[in-house]
Design brief:
The protein has 147 residues and is of the alpha/beta class. The chain has helices spanning 13-29, 58-83, 97-107, 122-128, 131-138, and strands at residues 4-8, 32-40, 46-48, 51-53, 87-94, 112-116, 143-146.
């Protein structure tokens, strides 16, 4: 069945459900797991009235992003360890999270991508978009969506 699962997580309660599902599936299949956290790219500085407003230096942004990702990924590793599942953490800073998920799955030769979805419908789905929908649309490997 599956040998290598990728679970995308942002640390939210909803993505925690996807993590739990991925760990259970990996355990049942005897597969390994990669836990991925994607941080949005560094925000572009603002130019207002001849002034540059740079909220935080790039190095500080990367440092904080790494620390935040470590908190999220450490929780996943602890849960996976408790279930006896080998888990590798991965943090990426990217402009488009869905592309980072796809790239990580391809480079890791993952059999399946597990991710959460809010299940938005109608106009809110159109306006907000969805990283999950983008992954579903472009993925060449199965995507398991947990709601």
């Amino acid at each position: 069945m599956y040998k290598h699962l990728l679970v995308a997580t942002d640390g939210s309660k909803l993505s925690d459900k996807a993590v739990a599902h991925a760990i259970g599936l990996a355990k049942a299949a005897g597969a390994r797991l990669t836990a991925l956290n994607v941080t949005p790219d560094y925000p572009q500085p603002l130019y207002m009235e001849g002034m540059l407003l740079d909220p935080v230096p790039r190095s500080e942004y990367a440092k904080h992003a790494k620390a935040d990702a470590a908190k999220v990924l450490d929780r996943v590793i602890k849960k996976a360890d408790a279930a006896g599942v080998k888990c590798t953490p991965l943090h990426i800073i990217a402009g488009q999270p869905w592309e980072a998920i796809m790239t990580a799955a391809r480079k890791g030769k993952c059999d399946v991508i597990v991710m959460a979805s809010h299940g938005r419908r109608g106009i809110s789905a159109l306006l907000l978009g969805s990283e999950t929908v983008k992954v579903l649309t472009h993925s060449k490997v199965p995507v398991l969506v947990v709601r």
